[in-house]
């Protein structure tokens, strides 16, 4: 299960070092901007993100979701293992629609 968190609560937990802040965007997105102290466990690599985005633009959102699931399902065991190895409470973030972060938050329990 996941829940939204308010910015002030996030900053407090981050200061107390009781959380691990996880950015699930692609490495390129993470390199361009990230919340200080966060780590990157990407749902898609740079090329996969472009591929899913292209399907979204050319075919539509449902086809993009299917493509994303096709790509991500192969990586799922390693993705979950990375989250479990962190040990701390995890706060996951992404950008825009939130599909990647909601998926990661749901799977990382």
UniProtKB/TrEMBL annotation:
<feature type="domain" description="Rhodanese">
    <location>
        <begin position="15"/>
        <end position="105"/>
    </location>
</feature>
<dbReference type="GO" id="GO:0002098">
    <property type="term" value="P:tRNA wobble uridine modification"/>
</dbReference>
<protein>
    <submittedName>
        <fullName>tRNA 2-selenouridine synthase</fullName>
    </submittedName>
</protein>
<dbReference type="InterPro" id="IPR001763">
    <property type="entry name" value="Rhodanese-like_dom"/>
</dbReference>
<dbReference type="Pfam" id="PF00581">
    <property type="entry name" value="Rhodanese"/>
</dbReference>
<dbReference type="InterPro" id="IPR036873">
    <property type="entry name" value="Rhodanese-like_dom_sf"/>
</dbReference>
<dbReference type="InterPro" id="IPR017582">
    <property type="entry name" value="SelU"/>
</dbReference>
<dbReference type="GO" id="GO:0043828">
    <property type="term" value="F:tRNA 2-selenouridine synthase activity"/>
</dbReference>
